[in-house]
User: What shape does this take?
Amino acid sequence: MAPGMVVAILLSGLAVLALVYIAALGRTALRQGLLRPNLEGLALGAVTNFFDTLGIGSYAPTTAWLKLRRLVPDSYIPTILNAGHGLPTVVEALIFINLVKVDPWLLAACIAAAVGGAVVGAPIVVRLPLRAIQGVVGVAMLLAAAAFVAKNLNLMPGGGTALSLPPPLFAVAVAGYFVFGALMTCGIGLFAPSLILLPLLGMNPTASFPMMMGACAFLMPVSGLRFLRSERIDIRLVIGITLGGIPAVLLAALLVKSLPLTALRWGVVVVVVYAAAILLRAAFRPSPSEGPIAATI
Assistant: This one.
């Protein structure tokens, strides 16, 4: 199969998946009578997805804001992250898959691996007790903060110039994306580990963008379709994040070269570490009344 055909199939698949997800989200909102978006969610989606397009990620900042504002219980966080940011990430993927000409076979393999990991991970996440979710997401946020610090201090690998990988490293990248996909359903963002792994393998850092955004664009709606059936989800907040995020992605794609990303990362570090501390403190002081998420699905 020609490389161009592989890319065309990926883009077509994204379009179909987006339509399926839009229909599912619309049915859920209509059934619950919650079509009006949460206004704070609109602002949150706009800000977090704007910076997500720049490679900063949306999961950690969104989790931090949800915790700081106490908008939802902690057990809602993984479902809102996957369901709310799914469609804006599809837009990101459509942009960067067309802009950065990474090896289409590597791109397709890593996307498939991430989706496979998410399919494996989602049933586990919906059965986890609240204490486990708080602990996992709290640790994930500290790791994301550490990645931002390392990037700002030039401790992360600079990467090479490659846009493809030889077979052994190809297999390493695919295995890594399978793990990243499973962790995504726990609220652990894929961007930070992807921005570390691929440069370590000798790839051009820009190659990370279509790969990580393409993977997220497929796996987040896949996970979101399952999470939409959960009672531990705020549909108005999900719609707000979605509607605020899509235009912000388009705007960020136009301004990506003109913002001080280092300063932004330092700001994100402060907020994320604070929210992670709150989550971890709650994880070690669990409420005895909390049960597994699956009990309410």
